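Narrative progress, year one. The postdoctoral researcher (J.K.) led the effort to move from monomer predictions toward full complexes, under supervision of the PI. The following entry was the first complex the group processed end to end, covering 222 residues in total.
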Amino acid sequence: MVDRLGKIYAKLHDHFGPQGWWPADGPFEMVIGAILTQNTTWKNVEKAIASLKAEGLLDPMDLIKTGPDEIQRLIRPTGYFRQKTERLLAISYAIIDKWDGDLGNLFKKPASQARQELLSFKGLGPETVDSILLYAGNKPVFVVDAYSKRICERLGLIKTKDYNELQRFFESNIPVDVEVYKEFHALLVALGKEYCSSNEANMKCHLCPLEADCETGLLAQV
DNA sequence: GGCCAGGTCAAAG
DNA sequence: CTTTGACATGGC
């Protein structure tokens, strides 16, 4: 399985090229993006981040000085704007009075401890937290999302839908390397967006190895 | 108009 | 322990 995942990674990298994730100007902006992108297209997140940036609010201290109504208005395009505003404010307060104003202090801790601390926030689940650890903290933590689950299922790589089991599957079958983790996750999203929609009718089956005509597919000979 | 998007939580079954 | 509903906007 180590070998198969390695081949999948190589094929995806050949096909899509380097993804350069996460697109963010600094760790705090990355954290904001991780929260805002929950069940939402990145396109809408870009709008919201641009709005926050235009108001000079991409900083925990400036954010908490702003009224919730104003934040809700600025992030409206990302959906769930009331909940997400709460989450942005909660993490901002934590950065200031728990991590002394610097996310770097969180990332100095062992990954497992930082992970537990982040998971204790309401609204920060495993994917959001692991994205933060990997892309903002450069911790070797593999990020599992809806696409990686679906791709694993359709390729018959592993049956479980459990987050922790899927994460363990990837982490124990690819090299422990932050850059590889980042790139692999981003590549799985790229593949998923194009060829592995949740709606099977939208799948481009010529590239899906589970379909009959997939011999020439991207992953067919893996 | 219906379905989906780089999820998460609380309440049921 | 698994399933379901709520949260919400924008694009196709």
